[in-house]
Amino acid sequence: MNVSGIKRIAFAITGLLMAVAFLATGLQARDADSPTAESTQTRELASFPHGKDKHKTLECSRCHTITVAEPDVKDFPGHVSCAPCHNLALEALTKPAVFCGICHEAGPISKAQPSLFRFPKPQVRTDFGTDFSHPSHLKQMPQRITFTPGNQEVPGQFSQTPRCTDCHKRIQPTTPSTPEMTVETGHRTCFKCHGEQPVKPPSMNQCAECHKLDGPHSPHLYNLVKAFKHEDHEFDIRPRKKKEYPLAKAPDYLCSDCHSSVVAAGALDRIKLPEERQCAECHNGRLGLPDALARDVLDTLRR
After folding, report:
1. Which residue range is the domain that position 294 belongs to?
2. For residue 277, is it within any domain?
3. d(CA 64, CA 8)
4. pLDDT at 171
5. Would you report the helix, strand and coil content of the chain in percent, each value rounded to 5?
6. Distance between CA 158 and CA 145 in Å, rounded?
7. What DSSP line would sit under 148-161, residue for residue?
8. 106: exposed, middle or buried (C-beta count within 10 Å: 0-12, 13-18, 19+)?
9. Taking every pair of C-alpha atoms in the chain, what is the biggest distance, in angstroms?
10. Of 97, 124, 151, which residue is a domain's last?
11. Distance from C-alpha of 217 to C-alpha of 220, rounded to nearest angstrom
12. Is residue 278 part of a domain?
């Protein structure tokens, strides 16, 4: 038998040992009446440490592959990505839940669920933040732009300064279970401009330019003020003097007027709710204007 055949057999045995060890550990944990402190700690540890010294030296493309046609990472890297540095058989036998549990979940295999893992793992907070600057994305765009995929040149559509409503569009019709506004996220959105030949740097292959270890995460501020409705705030009802007409303002000027902290935020963690003084310009009880905000709303804005 040649060397290649021996390697294939060794790899198959390693995979079998890993599967048996991890499945046995998972079944034991599932049969337990209640989770112990040790099992809880094991679950917390079973997440991939991108920030580990050795892992930080690797290029993202070493383990992940994205293309213009398929820009989202949908699969875990295979064993071949880990094997050059890790003894998979030893890791599987000595600490199967902590090591194998990074990618795998113990459970029965069926036609509907043929594998022992899911990706992305649910309820696991990423250790990457996103380096996104609103001021950078509100600058004037070139008059001609080449979109990817397809390398299609679209003239004249970006000659004006981008608006908030280009990315945050109203959702119609709205229901109690859906948000009022879209939040454009993900590679598909970014790669329209940051493709293989980006309109402005970075390109789609410069992952570290956007994804920062321990970087800022977007705060969960949406829908904190339960009584607020965007559709009730589409028109400026503040009194105006005659000389102020017509108003030469962008269609979404109220967005940037209320969300001034967002427009000026150079990082996601700098985004804040509108300030009380901004709301009080309308919500003050004067003739023709709404009543002052309720105490619970003010307490939310003051967080």
Report:
1. 230-301
2. yes
3. 23
4. 86
5. 35, 5, 60
6. 8
7. TTTTEEEESTTSSP
8. buried
9. 93
10. 124
11. 9
12. yes
Question: So what's the pLDDT on residue 17?
Answer: 59
128-130 and 152-155 strand pairing? unpaired
End of a domain among 99, 124, 149?
Answer: 124
What average pLDDT does the chain have?
77
The two structure tokens encoding residue 264? 């000026």
Mean pLDDT of 161-174: 82
Contact 261, 272 (CB under 8 A): yes
d(CA 258, CA 236): 11
User: Which pairing describes strands 144-147 and 152-155: parallel, antiparallel, or unpaired?
Assistant: antiparallel
In a domain, 180, yes or no: no
Answer yes or no: pTM beyond 0.70.
Answer: no
C-alpha separations of 133 from 166, 201, 214, 259, 266 in Å: 15, 13, 16, 14, 4
Domain count for the chain: 2
Q: Do the domain assignments include residue 68?
A: yes
- Parallel/antiparallel/unpaired status of strands 152-155 and 211-213: unpaired
Cβ of 113: how many Cβ atoms within 10 Å?
12
